[in-house]
Every structure is written in C-alpha cells, then in structure tokens.
Design a protein that fits this description.
10 strands, alpha/beta
C-alpha cells in the first residue's frame, strides 16, 4: 500500500511564507504537519560506513511528502541521522530539501549542536541556504542549566530565522519545563516548542506559562491528545510512511471532529508508538519499506532491528495498513 495525496489534502494547508530574513521572518509560525524526514543512503565503499546520502532519492521523498499535503519538511533531525553525517553531508541534505520543495512548503532545518557557537553556525548556514526556520535542541552532551539554555537559544535566534526549540529530556537530560519555556519564549524569534516529554499535561501548562509560544506535538503516539489540548502543529515521524492520512488526522483534530479523528488515529497508535522507542529511525525506515517506499539502512551506531522487534513492528504495520485501506475506501480515496 502507498499513501497517496488527494486534492482535499493538498489544498487545506497554509500558504508557504516567502523565504526572507529579519524581524518579519523571525515571527513566522512553524505549525502544521512538518515531517522529520528520514535520509536514504546508497551503497558507496568510499563513503563513511560504506553508505552515501542518496540526495536524488531524498529530494524525491521531500517532494512526495509535500505533494501528499504535508506543510513542511525537517531535514537534519534525529530521524535524519544528523549526528552520523559529515559537515558537508549535513549541509547538502538541507540544501536538497530547500530545492526540492521550493516555495510550496516550509523547510525547518535541524541545527542541533553541543555548544551555542555550533548551533548558531548551522543556523547561519540554514539561513544562507534558504530555510524557513530551524529546530534546535538545548546543548547536546551536556546537562545545561536554565541560564545556559537561554543563552544557547539566544545565539541561535540572533541569526534571524524563526526558531522551534525542542524539548526531548529523554535524550538530552535537559527538560525545557513550562517555567523555563516562559524565559525562552521571551527571546525574539523563538516561536514554537516541539514537545517530546511524553507528558500530555505539558501542552496546557506551556500555554499558561508562555501563551505566545506555539506548542507542536513531537510524539506520534500522543499527537491526537496534544492537538485536542491546543497544540497547533505536529513535527512528525510516521508521515514519512503515511503522509496523506496523517495530514487528514491533523485536519480532523484541529477542526474538533473528535469521533472521526479517533476512528483514524486509534488503529495507527501501535505503529506510532515506535516513534517513541530507541529504534525509531530503523522502525520508520522499515515502515517505509513495507508500504512500497524506500527506507533502507541506517548508518552506525544504528544497526538492523532485532528479529523480535522486526516481527512486532511488522505486525503493528499490518494492522495500520489494513485500517488505512478500510479508511481510504470509506473516504473514496
């Protein structure tokens, strides 16, 4: 099964914002369904780990996501294996995404770095290359305090692109609490937070503490709950597999059509849970393979899925695919 775009899913997303810099750009919203894109590789003995980023295939994938109704793409995130890329590869991936989607969707580039000088460097390149915004973790590999976190994001925001900060305390060990986000939201240019704490109570708490900050769902298996509580975006993994259905889920939730949204969402949650597991990159790439797209291998340190994980994922994907086939027939797609 492949997940096809429909006129309905293509026409409902926000019109793209022109790629500009400065104060106007720094307040551009980074909402809607933005896909944290996977990165395909081609075998190449001269490349690191024998795998070269397949930029032609990546461009086609970005274009397919946009043509399927997604509002943007997010290169160089964790799902895009940014930490396994060389600097030249990392920049080439971002440039490929910008060229592939043109002005039809947003490109929100991951600029994660150990220090603020590194994150700012990647943000400067993203601005130079035409990105619409950046996604930024707190300092990686270091448990920064609140003052250090604020300074980190100030440096990135100074570049002039809209900034979506990323709360992923499971990996970074730095929790962007609602109280911390109140301080971060005061930085000119910080417009959103990708919330991946796993605590659905955070949506309302962040909105109370930082009412001007867009809350973006970061966990696929909590997306409906987050959207119903007021999240305005979804920075997502499984739209790499099911883009049109995921866009429709987002539309139904935002429209308050709860019964229809639940009917679509609940059969997908078993698959979506893999987005919150350690093996999320391998799992989503495997999901792409199973629906006729190309996911392919990962670079180290990620290896193949363990046999028991692969069996469970395949079963979860079968359930999702079967449910979507029934849903598509009912929708006349």
């Amino acid at each position: 099964m492949t997940d096809h775009a429909t006129p309905q899913s293509r026409t409902s997303h926000p019109s793209p914002t022109s790629r500009t810099s400065g104060t106007a750009a720094s307040r551009t919203p980074l909402t809607g369904v933005i896909v944290a894109t996977t990165l395909p590789y081609a075998e190449d003995r001269s490349a690191p780990a024998g795998l070269r980023p397949d930029l032609d295939r990546y461009a086609e994938h970005c274009r397919w996501l946009v043509d399927s109704g997604c509002h943007g793409v997010g290169p160089n995130g964790s799902l895009g294996e940014y930490s396994s890329l060389t600097d030249d590869e990392r920049r080439a991936v971002a440039r490929t995404a910008v060229a592939a989607v043109g002005r039809d969707a947003r490109v929100v580039v991951g600029v994660h770095g150990v220090g603020s000088h590194q994150a700012r460097y990647w943000a400067e390149l993203a601005a130079e290359d035409g990105a619409d915004g950046v996604l930024c973790l707190p300092p990686t590999l270091y448990r920064a305090n609140t003052a250090e976190v604020v300074r980190h994001f100030e440096e990135v925001a100074a570049v002039g692109l809209p900034v979506m900060v990323y709360n992923n305390p499971l990996d970074t060990k730095v929790d962007l609490t609602p109280e911390t986000l109140r301080e971060v939201a005061a930085i000119d240019g910080v417009v959103a937070v990708k919330e991946f704490s796993g605590d659905i109570r955070r949506v309302l708490h962040v909105k109370e503490q930082a009412p001007g900050l867009d809350v973006v769902a970061g966990a696929d298996d909590l997306v409906l709950e987050a959207l119903l509580m007021g999240a305005t975006g979804w920075f997502a993994g499984f739209p790499n597999v099911f883009p049109a259905a995921c866009v429709r889920l987002y539309e139904l939730a935002r429209a308050g059509r709860v019964a229809e949204a639940r009917e679509l969402y609940e059969p997908l949650v078993a698959a979506f849970r893999w987005d919150s597991r350690t093996e999320f990159v391998q799992a989503i790439k495997r999901g792409m393979d199973l629906v006729g797209r190309y996911g392919g291998p990962c670079r180290p340190p990620r290896g193949p899925l363990l046999p028991e994980h692969r069996r469970q994922l395949d079963a979860d994907m079968r359930g999702a695919v079967q449910a979507l086939e029934i849903w598509a027939k009912a929708e006349g797609r």
